[in-house]
UniProtKB/TrEMBL annotation:
Entry-linked InterPro entries: Acyl_CoA_acyltransferase (IPR016181)
Domain of life: Bacteria
UniProt-recorded name of the protein: BioF2-like acetyltransferase domain-containing protein
Native organism taxonomy: Bacteria, Pseudomonadati, Bacteroidota, Sphingobacteriia, Sphingobacteriales
Amino acid sequence: MKVVIYDDLDEWCAITQSLGRQSVLNSSKFIKINCETFNLKPFLSIIFNDKVPILGSILYQKANQIIQPNEYFYTAIWLNSKSDLIIQEGILYWISLLTQKFNRIEFNLPPNIKDIRAFYWSGFKADVYYTYISDLSQDLNFNSKVNNIINKSKKYDIKFEANNSISEEILQYHYKSFISLGYSSIYSEKMVEFIAKLFDVNFCYSMNAKYTVNDELICSSIILLDDSSLIANNFLVTSNKTSYHTGVHSAIYAENYYYLKSHGYLSFDLCGANTKGISNFKRQFKGELTPFYRVKFNSWRWKAVLTKRKFDSFVKTLRKKMK
């Protein structure tokens, strides 16, 4: 095994593209937006096995730490081998590199990485999270309760509009939502800046719901589009609590399903199903419940674990000798 660390983002992206592993999350534009907005540096690496690239990753570095810039997206990691054993050895080699260079590490694994034993063996902790992923190549078949709510929403004369650009009104609408969720004003401003930049490079569209009679905005969603894999990610959905009775929150999900299917997308990731209320709501759209992992490493904790293991082994050996 051999690892190459890249300073040239374009070179890393060119190799990735040559292998057919490109995605919105590992595109140079997305990476630059993340780094510029959150003041991060990309850490680019590829693991080679006999000159064949088998694992590539883009992580985000701040000082001597690897951090997850926000909770909404997975880390850009691709795998390029049919051998589970080679992939496992590649991940172990990659992890060894990371733990030697960084004191703290935290990032979301993409759902396709299901075997995380290599991380446990290397001193990482892992938290399991869930999402629902819908196959848009199949006929849409929502829960009957959702269909009833959608039909109910039609009585309130609500109009839905899909937009490839984003207005200041929509940005401020989501900013207020971040604040209401308990995020700091600084983080909320950064997230709004991040969203605006994604729209500037055509990575997102918004679906917005307004009352026809007075043009009042009552719900807005932002969808991240991956045109390489034809996967869409349900980035944000915000709605007025005073409008819940209209069913607009369910209706806007349905509108996104219709829009994405009509535009040829193959998969829709609803991005999060961890709390009971949100999980039960998203379950009604009949996607597949899918786990993913957030892995964490702390070098000081791991050193303490290894020290304790050595001490316990020493005590065990000493007791045997004393018998």
